[in-house]
Design a protein that fits this description.
The protein is of the alpha/beta class and about 230 residues long. The chain is built from 9 helices and 8 strands.
Length: about 230
């Protein structure tokens, strides 16, 4: 099998598992957006993914999204780039024109920086964003504590530079994906309590569980692209 068929096959498998999870949960698969996480993968993998119909891609480092977006664009491709990692304020200006959405809004200072750099987006309008919440309270995790969410949400909601889509979380790594269920459920409840609809949750190990618990967007890397190149 060529690399392209392998990727297309893996992608079809992921889409089938998304459909199955939706069926178990009585949901419409059209409610769940698949974002393919291409981090550490070569530009070739991005071209194969777009050729296979995957038009939403995610990167977690500023340098990487800039390089991947430039390479894709040079090849005449225009996937939507989702920024899913911690965004440093000194990278906002460069990254803003390139990204379709930000999944990791996690501080008031980042909101201020985006407001100052907003014009860099030209006509693209306010930046769709998800507020990242550290649901499981893990030490080294990014995202705000649930208690700090109201202040962040208030600032993001009134900012003309941002369009709040919902909440995002990264579940802890566990041996049994079912153990992530309470984390996803807690994010869903938190979003509902604030009247938010979007839920960016679920990765290779746990996206079916996340979909059963209401994910509207899953961020899947290895199941589509294979193991990461470091
Ligand atoms: C790397 C990454 C993913 C994808 O991880 P996989 O386990 O490869 O599916 C999703 N979300 C975030 C925030 C990531 O950093």
């Amino acid at each position: 099998m060529t690399a392209t068929t392998t990727l297309a096959t893996r992608l079809a498998e992921v889409r089938a598992r998304i459909a199955q999870a939706c069926e178990r949960a009585g949901r419409d698969p059209a409610e769940v957006l698949l974002v393919g996480v291409s981090k550490t993968q070569p530009a070739r993998a991005v071209r194969d993914a777009v050729a296979a119909g995957l038009l939403d891609l995610g990167e977690n480092r500023a340098q990487d999204v800039l390089e991947q977006a430039a390479a894709a664009s040079a090849a005449g491709l225009a996937p939507r780039w989702h920024f899913i990692g911690h965004l440093q304020r000194n990278k906002v200006r460069e990254v803003l024109p390139v990204i379709h959405s930000l999944h990791s809004l996690d501080s008031l200072r980042l909101i201020e920086e985006i407001e100052q750099r907003w014009e860099a987006r030209g006509d693209a309008g306010p930046l769709p964003c998800f507020l990242e919440v550290n649901i499981a309270g893990e030490e080294q995790k990014s995202g705000v504590e649930p208690a700090d969410l109201p202040a962040l949400l208030a600032a993001a909601s009134k900012s003309p530079a941002l369009l709040v889509e919902g909440l995002m979380t990264v579940a802890p790594q566990v041996s049994d994906p079912a153990q992530t269920r309470p984390v996803f459920r807690a994010l869903r409840d938190l979003a509902a309590a604030h009247g938010l609809r979007g839920l960016s949750m679920g990765m290779t190990e746990d996206y079916p569980v996340a979909i059963e618990e209401g994910a509207t967007l899953v961020r899947v890397g290895r199941a589509i692209f294979g193991e990461r190149r470091t």
